[in-house]
Amino acid sequence: xxxxxxxxxxxxxxxxxxxxxLPPWTRKCxxxxxxxxxxxADLGLHPADYEEADAIPLTTGSVADxxxxxxxxxVGDIDVMIHWNMQLATPRGxxxxxxxxxxxxxxxxxxxxIDSHLPGYVYLPLxxxxxxxxxxxxxxxxxxxxxxxxxxxxxxxxxxxxxxxPAILADNSHISRLSVDVVPxxxxxxxxxxxxxxxxxxxxxxxxxxxxLDLVVSNGCDVVGVAHRQCRQHEWVGKAQHRLSFxxxxxxxxxxxxxxxxxxxHMLRVYVKTERLTECADNSGASTLSNYHIxxxxxxxxxxxxxxxxxENLNLVKICVELLNTLAVWLTDPRCKHYFVSNCxxxxxxxxxxxxxxxxxxxxxxxFSTWLVNNYIRQCAQLCPHHILRLFDDISTxxxxxxxxxxxxxxxLDTSLNDLWWDVHNxxxxxxxxxxxxxxxxxxxxxxxxELTKIDKRFSVYxxxxxxxxxxxxIPRNGSSDKVSDILPTIFxxxxxxxxxxxxxxxxxxxxxxLVELLQKSAVEHLTTYRQLMARxxxxxxxxxxxxxxxxxxxxxxxxxxxxxxSTQSVHALLYAGCMPAVPxxxxxxxxxxxxxxxxxxxxxxxxxxxxxxxxxxCITQLTLSLYLMTQCQLKLHHSVTxxxxxxxYIEVAQRRHPRERTLDHWTxxxxxxxxxxxxxx
Length: 682
Description:
The protein is α+β, with helices and mostly antiparallel strands.
């Protein structure tokens, strides 16, 4: 029986190590987090008297913590912290800063961090007013000498939104499946004295190393507007108390973990969530066991356990069981020492732990191995083809279990590149959708590029192209283009597009149609570059023609010979392709298309409920678009009946190859087929 248990735990360990993908990988949750950051930056959630303030977002929570991608999802929502560039916190007794990062406003209020009677909780009285000098960019300060003004953790403009704990729910359901929780905070650029002993607390086993430690300390901390659960009903303390947040530090530390530690953290979270040992997934201070306690457990284990404990005779099940047993001891005492603030206990007798401690104490390797097979690996099997899922009908022996698990691993590895292709393709769509539905600003463009470049460098080519098309469609046909004067240098100047090559042509006297044409041309050039990158990286799993946007642009400007050449080449390449990209019909891309496709796209949205409910947009494949352009050019150039008859054969093949649910594709093919028949009959 002991050998059987050992075999199962080894099978589980091998499964997790072989199915958790590592960077570089384009995760769906990362793209949705980038969308969330851009949304949070432009929500307009300004505190009173801060109408000029910019919100600076930071992705936190599970998306930021994990770099692995297991088969089961890591993320249930997107957590974004925002601080305003007109507010700053500084430790008590520290002189006000004279230099600030470029993101800060030229007028900044500085609040002093003062301890409350509870460790980790503070008050923020206004202490200094900073103003920036125009000469060298440094700041002068004056001391705020009026009556003491404490920053409230209640901000009126948030009260009409759904609030839970310190978080405000941002309604972005129209562009993301994951909800976005926005947590307002005040930035502190210094490491707080409340955690002064952490940088000098040298672990015996070398974690964190000196470089990681220095990075954590240099990032400072944040102060979140939420009172301790024991103080929320107090008339004054409930409004004035804030909590020190070490989210920036936690992100750096957790991302320094080796994959084994990240996988263990994931397994612990899955277990406590599945067994409903937690009632909330944040560190808001509610009197229940939370994911923050699991995070704290892992941080202490990484510091106090030697490397050999994680790597020698590696058994993930055994590691998890030992850590859950440790958590049981903490719950029994109760004590859970804050990882950064030494005199802060994250547990007390008010916690609703019930029988959790006793259940965790009795947990052993045999039980946990079986639990993971039934509650984790079986769930992964649901994602696989049916013949693999059927193997789990009988896993009565370790040999049968090993065979079933091995098939999942093999399928996961075999489909890796294809999955990445679809993830990147999905990311294109999400980026285009979000840009189309959320008006771009200078701050959101900076945020977009910062976040997307971290995810996938290909997006630093794709996003500026979509942004340029967005600006082009916003420019009125006849009128001033002043509204885009700020955003264009941001798009061009920040990344990869050379503003200097376009600037000479963007003269003040340039009229709106000329500017639109210039922006569209630049966008097409970068979309073409993006297609070339995609073809290079995914040519083995998809057929990707790189000239579809060039052909569109050539047709739009009346160069039918060029368009015909490009689209004919594309049809020959795509006619029997198994997988290919599609072009979305968001307004940004519609402007490149002719009236017939625009009309068909509009009718599709009206009559096809799936397009409206699931995406709000319909797409057209590269094959359909190329056939449409090729046929239109043939008709305009008066090609022979023989040439048109051959095109009808291509259209028939394409109609058979497109699934019935591809409404826009079928209608577009039907339209050009009808045009050809009418021409031939005449």
